Amino acid sequence: MRWNSLLLAVLVSCPVAATAAPKPKPKPKCEGRCAAIVEVAATHCRNAPKRVDRSFLKRLVEIELELGVPDRYRGMVLSAACRESGYRAKPRRGDGGRAVGLLQMWPWWEKRYKIKRTDPYASARAWITQVLRSVRKARRVCGRRRAFVSAWAWVASGPQRWRCRSPRHYRLLRRWHRKSRWPSTRSSTAAE
């Protein structure tokens, strides 16, 4: 009984520090160079329909910004979505009917990330998260310089004995960066 009353007295006598609720981070906006990569992606994707919703592409790049994709790989989701589904967010089946959606995800994605593969924004968020998680192992296996690109390849097409390689989307992204006059993708290895 004494301990309870002593504890209560201590708790009541201690002033509670007034703490303001943390301010939510503003959502990153896709402006300037991001808008340029969106425009190039909308006009230079061979698999895309004639009319591409640029606000949809812009939102995908904003998800990359939110999750912290390095600047030199900005547009990686756009290049993957272009190659995989032509930016079609509606369900599309590939790989014998097992891969579905914008990024042609297999069923294990739904179980691991608790997403619907047909939801393009949730798919993009899960896909980028998986790439960022794989970078650490890729750095051990492939070295610092090729870590991000190798992790991207592992997520895009499976680890295939953890070889260090580039995904097929990377060449397309580099072409888009040249067209949009993005800073060189070879010069900023410190950004990784």
What brief labels describe this structure?
8 helices; Lysozyme; single chain; two-stranded antiparallel ribbon; 192 residues; disordered C terminus
Would you mind describing this structure in some detail?
The structure is a single chain. By secondary structure, the chain is an all-alpha fold. The protein has one domain (28-184): Orthogonal Bundle (Lysozyme), CATH 1.10.530. Helix content is 52%, strand content 2%. The chain is built from 8 helices and 2 strands. It has helices at residues 2-13, 33-43, 54-67, 76-85, 108-113, 120-142, 147-157, 168-179; strands at residues 93-94, 99-100. A two-stranded antiparallel ribbon has the order 1-2. Helix 3 (54-67) crosses helix 6, helix 4 (76-85) crosses helix 8 and helix 6 crosses helix 7.
The global form is globular
SS-derived structural category: mainly alpha
Assign a percent range to the helix content: 40-55%
Order of helices and strands: HHHHEEHHHH
CATH T-level fold name: Lysozyme
DSSP strand tally: 2
Ends apart, CA distance between termini: 59 Å
Radius of gyration (Å): 22 Å
Q: Kindly provide the name of the CATH class.
A: Mainly Alpha
What value does the average pLDDT take?
82
The stretches of 5 or more residues where confidence is low (pLDDT under 50) are 187-192
Q: Reading side by side through the largest sheet, how are the strands ordered?
A: 1-2
Strand content: under 5%
- Separate helix tally: 8
CATH architecture: Orthogonal Bundle
